[in-house]
Amino acid sequence: MIPKPTIPLPSKKILVVEDEAIIRKSIADHLQIDNFFVVQAGDGEEALRVLENFSPDLILTDIKMPRKDGIALFKDLRKHAQWAAIPVIFLTADNSATILRLTRELGAEDHLTKPIMHQDLVNTINARLLRSAEVEVAHIDQAYLETVAVMANAIEGRDQYTRGHVDRVTNICLWMAQELGWPEDQIRTLEFGARLHDIGKIIIPDHILNKTGKLNDEEWELMRQHPEAGEKMLSGISHLQSVRPYILYHHERWDGTGYPEGLKQREIPIEARLLAIADVYDALTSERPYHPARPHEEVLKYLEINAGKHFDPDLILVFHRVMQMRGTP
Ligand SMILES: [Fe+2]
Question: Which of 5, 265, 268, 307 has the fewest CB atoms below 10 angstroms from its CB?
Answer without folding.
Answer: 5
